[in-house]
Amino acid sequence: MTTYYDVPADLLNPALADKLSENKSINRPQWADFVKTGIHRERPPSQTNWWELRCAALLRKVGRDGPIGVNALAQAYGGKKDNGSNPHTPAMGSRHIIRTALQQLTEAGLVEMKEMKTVQSVDGDQKLYPGRTLTPLGHKLLDEVAHSVRPIAEELYPGLSKY
Questions:
Q1: CATH fold of the domain at 9-162
Q2: Helices 136-156 and 50-65 sit at what angle, rounded to 10 degrees?
Q3: How far from 1 is each of 59, 132, 141, 150, CA to CA, in Å?
């Protein structure tokens, strides 16, 4: 069976975005038409389905690297900030976009918070979370989309047939 590890991201993410657009829990917020995706960007995204593509990319990245938190994902979606005549510096992506997309994926049942341990504090017991992981439903969705994209991937990348 083909898994999402076997298919390149440039083929998997658009197909997964199409599948996520059918889900009622994944919808673009009203503010998403006007927001930049990070401090290193000058303009908002020009694609019409950029929210679904970002949710698909986040779902794949949580599956590959999970448990992973919002800050680590923001660093992954960051870039170089142009400081004019000064050297470029690393910039993080928008944590609000990532957090909102992960909340929608959680509501859809594709991602969940992984509980690490419970600690006692002055305010009472508090749970610590190392990040988010895939649920079995999210893993199944990723594998189904990867299996449907596999023939196209083998045509474009002939070396994949041995895997």
A1: Arc Repressor Mutant, subunit A (1.10.10)
A2: 100
A3: 20, 25, 13, 10
| CA dihedral sign, ordered 140, 145, 151, 155 | negative
Residues 6 or more apart whose CB falls under 8 angstroms from that of 136 comprise none
User: Residue 58 in contact with residue 73, Cβ under 8 Å?
Assistant: yes
HSE-up (13 A, CA, CB side) for residue 56: 26
| 73-85 pLDDT, tens digit each | 999 998 888 888 9
| Residue 116, token pair as written in the block | 């690490």
Reported as a single tens digit per residue, the pLDDT across 28-78 is 999 888 888 888 888 888 888 899 999 999 999 999 998 999 999 999 998
What is the pLDDT at residue 106?
Answer: 94
The residue behind tokens 């059918």 is 22
Torsion sign (Cα): 146, 150, 152, 158: positive
**What pairs with residue 125 in β-bridges?**
120
Q: For 132, which DSSP code?
A: E
**What is the chain's Cα-based Rg?**
18
Indicate the domain borders of the chain. 9-162
The type of residue at 19 is: K
Q: Which residue has the tokens 């999210």?
A: 138
